[in-house]
Amino acid sequence: MKNYIQLIIWVVVIGAAFAFLWRKGYLLRLANYMAETREELKKCSWPSVEELKGSTMVIFVSIALFGIFTVSIDYVFSWILSLIV
Length: 85
Fold this sequence. Notes:
mainly alpha
């Protein structure tokens, strides 16, 4: 019985929230936003698989170089600080 009461309370709360959003026009604005987003995404040019693979490799190489640079600078600074202290 307790579970049914909780279920009824949740149905009422969700229904009230839905009614509020409907009355204020938020659901219509959300639907318009989704429709406009779909239209804009249709206008986009999507990369081919080969372009995507090439871009991914560029990102991997960039991250590796940045990581090597960061570790090198950290090593140099720690070496300099060990000489000072």
